[in-house]
Structure prediction request, 125 residues.
Amino acid sequence: MIYFYVGIAGSLGAMLRYGVGLAFYQADAVFPVSTLIINLAGSFLLAWLTASIFHAVKLSPAMKTAIGTGFVGSFTTFSTLSVETINLFQDERQLLAVFYVLISIFGGLAMSKLGYRAVVRSESE
Prediction:
């Protein structure tokens, strides 16, 4: 049954990812803004869910996996980040490619920290 939950949640996450990607899509963009926004938002979301909902609401391990791995996992996309980075290198935009990787990694960590802090702050108020 867990495969069904992950599949349904993954479908929803993929559809949301596509919609957000379209909202930030720019045909002539030299920098992959939409993927960066999606991955940073997903980092925040997973940390927030882990620190709040997964502790406050009694969910089965299958549902936690469906939400975390299925929904958030399909919303974010490491493979697209990788391909876009290679494309930047091939287009001889090395500094932009390095910046993209660094902001994706360190920005993702920062957004995760913000996601956890958002829960800690709301609990202390």
